[in-house]
Write a structure and sequence with these properties.
The protein is mainly β. The chain has a single domain, classed as Distorted Sandwich (Glucose Permease (Domain IIA)). 9% of the residues lie in helices and 39% in strands. The chain contains three helices and 14 strands. The strands form three sheets. It has an eight-stranded antiparallel sheet with strand order 9-5-6-7-11-3-2-13, with no helix packed on it. β5 and β6 form a beta hairpin.
């Protein structure tokens, strides 16, 4: 009986995360906020967006939308939890530059629009537009493959994880 217990193979799954934005990918350490750059919230990357369209990076379910609409949490079908945090200190704007296109608890597909953000308004309000993409349940990850940093477009692979 114990032999069967110890001979069970652990199935490692691969989770591919696609870019939720068009823009430039940077290491998380480049975010000018220690909560993100010191990875207090989790592992990930940052994106400097070129447009205000934000799409789902995975097939999954929206598990949280902050009341100020500046951040969205998604749980992938394989259990990976992601946070898309649009800009820095954007919570101060009380949702003004954000237009939600999806609701909490909605099942979403890769590339499905989640929200639009007025990047010019963020910049006019002296807010950083850099957008962290964070894996908040990093304890389930065995390995992360980071991208080649630089230009990225919707639908391109931004991270690959083994879970």
């Amino acid at each position: 009986m114990l032999k069967n217990l110890f001979n069970k193979k652990i199935k490692i799954q691969k989770e591919t995360i696609f870019s939720p934005l068009d823009g430039e990918v940077l290491p998380l350490e480049n975010v000018p906020d220690p909560v993100f750059s010191q990875k207090m919230m989790g592992e990930g990357v940052a994106i400097i967006p070129k447009s205000g369209k934000v799409v789902s990076p995975v097939n999954g379910k929206i598990i949280s939308i902050f009341p100020t609409k500046h951040a969205i949490g998604i749980r992938s079908e394989k259990g990976l939890e992601l946070l898309i945090h649009i800009g820095l200190e954007t919570v101060d704007l009380n949702g003004e530059p954000f237009e939600l296109l999806a609701k909490e608890h909605k099942i979403v597909k890769i590339g499905e629009p989640l929200l639009n953000v007025d990047l010019q308004l963020l910049e006019n309000c002296n807010k950083e537009i850099i957008t962290p993409l964070i894996i908040t349940n990093k304890e389930i990850i065995k390995e992360i493959e980071y991208p080649n940093y630089g230009e990225i477009h919707f639908g391109e692979v931004i991270l690959t994880c083994k879970i």
